[in-house]
Amino acid sequence: MKKTTILVADDETEIADLVELHLNKEGFRVVKAANGEEALRAIQLHTIDLAILDIMMPGMDGMEVTRRIRSEHPMPIIMLSAKTSDFDKISGLVIGADDYMTKPFNPMELVARVNAQLRRTMLLAQQSKVPDNMMVEAAGLALNPEQRSAVLYGEPLELTPKEFDILYLLASHPKKVFSAENLFQQVWKEDYYEGGNTVMVHIRTLRRKLGDDKDKWIKTVWGVGYKFNV
C-alpha cells in the first residue's frame, strides 16, 4: 500500500528532523527540502500529498513557494513561521495555505493538523469523484468503462488495457495534472520506482492512436506531468 508522502521544507535542520521523526511514527513518508527551490523540485520528483513549509527560508521563501504550488497543485499546505502577527497569518492563508502554525510549536499538534487536512482532502475527493462506471464524452471522444471501449469521431480506437486506463483517468478528471508517478501508481497499482519511461511510452503510443500530433487531447505540463486538454 502506498504511503502518504509529506514534504517538509525548512532550512532549520533540527526542526525538519524533529517533524520527520514524528511524521514517521505516524506511518508517513517524508521528503525534506532546505529551501524553496528544493521544495519545488521535490514536488516535481515525488507525488506529494501535503506540504509543510517554513515561511522564512533563504532565497525563495515559503510565501512564493505556496503561490507556485497553488498555480498547479491542490495539495494541502501548512505554513510554519516565527512570525506571530495576525497580518502574517492572514497573508499566508490568503495566498493559498490551508493552515498556519507559529514557532515554537508542539510536534504532536502539527501531526494532528496534518491528519485533519488529509481527512478533509479525502472527503472532498470522495464527494467529487467520478463514478467508476461513468461514460465520458468530450469533443468527439467517447469512453465506456463498462465495455472498455473507446470511440473517436465515430470510429473505434484499438487501445490496450493500460492505454484505456490512462486515457479514462485523464479524461474523467479534465484539466487536472497527473505526474508520471501518479499515473503509474493509479493505473499499474504498483509503487513507482522506475515507471517513468513506461508511462512516457504509453502516452506516446496513445497520442499516436488519437492522432494527437499537437497535444489536442493530452497536454504535457513541463516539469509536472500530463492532463486531458479538451
UniProtKB/TrEMBL annotation:
It holds the Pfam family Response_reg. Residues 133-230 bind DNA. It is found in: Cytoplasm. It comes from the Bacteria. Residues 133-230 form the OmpR/PhoB-type domain. Residues 5-118 form the Response regulatory domain. Keywords: DNA-binding, Phosphoprotein, Transcription, Transcription regulation, Two-component regulatory system. One of its GO terms (molecular function) is transcription cis-regulatory region binding. Gene3D superfamilies: 3.40.50.2300, 6.10.250.690, Winged helix-like DNA-binding domain superfamily/Winged helix DNA-binding domain (1.10.10.10). The modification 4-aspartylphosphate is found at D54. SUPFAM superfamilies: CheY-like. Its main location: cytoplasm. GO terms for biological process: regulation of DNA-templated transcription. One of its GO terms (cellular component) is cytosol. The keyword Nucleotide-binding does not apply. InterPro entries: CheY-like_superfamily (IPR011006), OmpR/PhoB-type_DNA-bd (IPR001867), Sig_transdc_resp-reg_receiver (IPR001789), WalR-like (IPR039420), WH-like_DNA-bd_sf (IPR036388). PANTHER family: REGULATOR OF RPOS (PTHR48111), RESPONSE REGULATOR SAER (PTHR48111:SF2). This is DNA-binding response regulator. It comes from Paenibacillus herberti.
